[in-house]
Amino acid sequence: MSQVTMAVNGKSASGTIEGRTLLVDFLRETLGLTGTHVGCDTSQCGACVVHVDGKAVKACTMFAAEADGAEVDTIEGQAAPDGTLNKIQQAFQDHHGLQCGFCTPGMVMSAAALLKENPKPTEAEVRSYLTGNICRCTGYHNIVKSILAASGQDVSQIGGAIAAE
């Protein structure tokens, strides 16, 4: 057993863990931050994406001990303290970028990382960036549209199905 301490959504958090404890399990089970989802346990679905020191990572592939001393941001830290959605969350709501909602936290966190790296991505760049995130409900069209809208781009001309690449 060992002790880890990290800043999670701007607040100090610590706990006693086994060496094999995954970051996703530490966030969900120790800290009670259940917005980070476990979808596949194999790093393929992207439902567990969080930011560690500003970089998007799949929390199911990282040990909690590796995040000791790090800044970790989860979906719970994206909205303002008063509950106001951030621009990405609002765009997902406005453009129907979610359906069942299971993949949404990972999609929002991936979108935030993309827009930090590339503030005005093309549709193809958004689709390429999301290859590590799986949505079984939406067909991705409105997710892509939501991310483009969050980047400040006009999405009024985007309609109907978008051809897969």
From TrEMBL:
It comes from the Bacteria. SUPFAM superfamilies: 2Fe-2S ferredoxin-like, CO dehydrogenase ISP C-domain like. InterPro entries: 2Fe-2S-bd, 2Fe-2S-bd_dom_sf, 2Fe-2S_ferredoxin-like_sf, 2Fe-2S_ferredoxin-type, Beta-grasp_dom_sf, Diverse_Oxidoreductases. Pfam families: Fer2 (PF00111), Fer2_2 (PF01799). Keywords: 2Fe-2S, Iron, Iron-sulfur, Metal-binding, Oxidoreductase. Residues 2-78 form the 2Fe-2S ferredoxin-type domain. The keyword Iron-sulfur applies. PANTHER family: OXIDOREDUCTASE WITH IRON-SULFUR SUBUNIT. This is Carbon-monoxide dehydrogenase small subunit. It comes from Roseovarius nanhaiticus. The lineage of its organism: Bacteria, Pseudomonadati, Pseudomonadota, Alphaproteobacteria, Rhodobacterales.
